[in-house]
Amino acid sequence: MLSKLDRWVAYCAMWAFFVLGVILVIEVIARYFFNAPTIWVEEVARLLFVWSVFGGAAYLFKDGDHIKVTILTDNLGRQKRKLLYLVSLGFVMICAGVIVYASIPLVVSALTSGKTTGSMLDMPSWPFDMALPVAMGLVVLRTGAECVKCLADDALSQKSNLPDG
Predict the structure, then answer these.
(1) Among 7, 20, 30, 128, which is disulfide-ready with 48 (CB 3.0 to 4.6 Å)?
(2) Residue 60 burial (CB < 10 Å; 0-12/13-18/19+)?
(3) Does any domain span residue 7?
């Protein structure tokens, strides 16, 4: 089930980036060639960017594709690397959990108050606010799954920088 969710998040992020590029090209053409800027592109582009970045960040935990600095762990044995890997996953999971916990009231407040972005398009602000708890919730799920996988069968993500020997 988590793999299907990962795949869905990746496709959504990919298409959001694609649509973002298309509407920015449309805006450039409208503004510079026809002298007719739009009022909707800036805000829609920001919304697509927020969702694609946070969704993409959540997806990158699937195979351990986030940047790793391994200068401290390169000379450690396998068990010590595994322990530090689990500690780092736990730290990420706790931080993402705190962000989920802290951001849910913002979404609820935006929904109940009818808060808008205050721009010319004046979109509701909850779609922007919702990206954070959803993406960080996915990060909690993915890092939890990676911890369970690591503890259960002594396997780590493909890019965890641990030697087999």
Answers:
(1) 20
(2) middle
(3) yes
Tens place of pLDDT per residue across the chain (165 aa): 667 887 888 888 889 999 999 999 999 999 989 988 888 888 899 889 988 988 888 888 776 777 777 777 778 888 888 888 889 889 999 999 999 999 999 999 988 998 888 777 888 888 888 888 998 998 898 888 888 888 876 555 444 555 443
Distant-in-sequence, close-in-space partners of 162: CB < 8 Å, separation ≥ 6:
78, 81, 82, 85, 156
Structure tokens given for 157: 């993500």
Number of domains the chain contains: 1
Which residues 6+ apart lie within 8 Å of 111 measured at CB?
126
Examine residue 161 and state whether it is found in any structural domain, yes or no.
no
Confirm whether 165 is domain-assigned: no
The answer for residues whose C-beta is within 8 angstroms of residue 31's C-beta and 6 or more apart is 37, 38
> Could you tell me the residue range of the domain that residue 37 belongs to?
2-153
**Distance (Å, rounded) from C-alpha 83 to C-alpha 81?**
5
**DSSP-assigned beta bridge partners for residue 116:** 124
